[in-house]
Amino acid sequence: MIVKSDHVEDFNTIFEIINDASIAYKGIIPKDRWKEPYMSKEELMVQIEEGVEFWSYVENGKILGVMGIQFKSDVTLIRHAYVRTMARKKGIGGKLLSHLIEITDFPVLIGTWADASWAISFYEKHKFRIVSKNEKNNLLKTYWSVPDRQIETSVVLASSDWF
To answer: Rounded to two decimals, what is the model's pTM?
Structure first.
């Protein structure tokens, strides 16, 4: 079952899932971008305050995956998509992504690490395509608040209605 997260009630669980699942990036993304925890509680709070709405996949009363959506003026961003390590490869991410795509009328953009091949493959399987390097740089500067080093080491994927 997919439900909109209560950012107060579910905050610690969202934090826990992000940091459990993000361990997959350790040793993959540039060392200067890795930190523990991967996302601090303060960073998570800022994301929520900046308009990221988290949705959860719940099974037997337990949140197994989370995915954020952020509505910008003319696009929708998918942010912070994570599934508990023990619940991966069960279609949870795909169900969350499909639901979030359904609730927007705008093109969807997703940023991820360029070396996270599994994440890129996941989004490509769901009909997203990588944009050009120049377009990526422009999009990350326009719609995200990320440091230049993250821009250098990331890709942006877009839904078919973007192209």
So the answer is: 0.95
